[in-house]
Amino acid sequence: MTKETIPAQEIINATCKALRVSFELLKSPNRGNEAAEARFIIFHLLREYTDLSYPKIAEKFNRDHSTVMYGVETFKTLVEGRNKKFMEKIERVKMINPIAFKSLLQMELELQDLEEEQRSINEQLNQRLTDLGNSVLYKKLTEVLKKKEIIYKNQITRLQYEY
Description:
Layout lengths: L7 H12 L3 H5 L5 H17 L4 H7 L4 H16 L3 H13 L7 H59 L1
């Protein structure tokens, strides 16, 4: 089964947009904090949500595969350390493309929950329709029985007068 759920270019574009950096800057030799941290985020997302290898990711950014490996590890370190500024950047990327930060497992669990909720609603609806149908049938049956009782009483009364 393929791992790709989000096209690589969509991840790159969303991150660049959220962090207000150009893709050209990220491909450049610039080692400034803004460019480097944007690359760390993109490298992580590309590894997490595509089948791209380290060398293929590196190729997109004019980098060596070891730079991408370092970026992915640095991403993890910054997240684990709860680096405030870095976490704010991640939040901005989430605002642009929140699905990029959900694991497939999370999405599958949410889908299962929604399917279960739909089944429950369908069962409740079917029960209500059955109850409603039974209620209508009960009323009709009661009316028929009352009419039969009236007819029966009339016949008994008529028979009593005849004798």
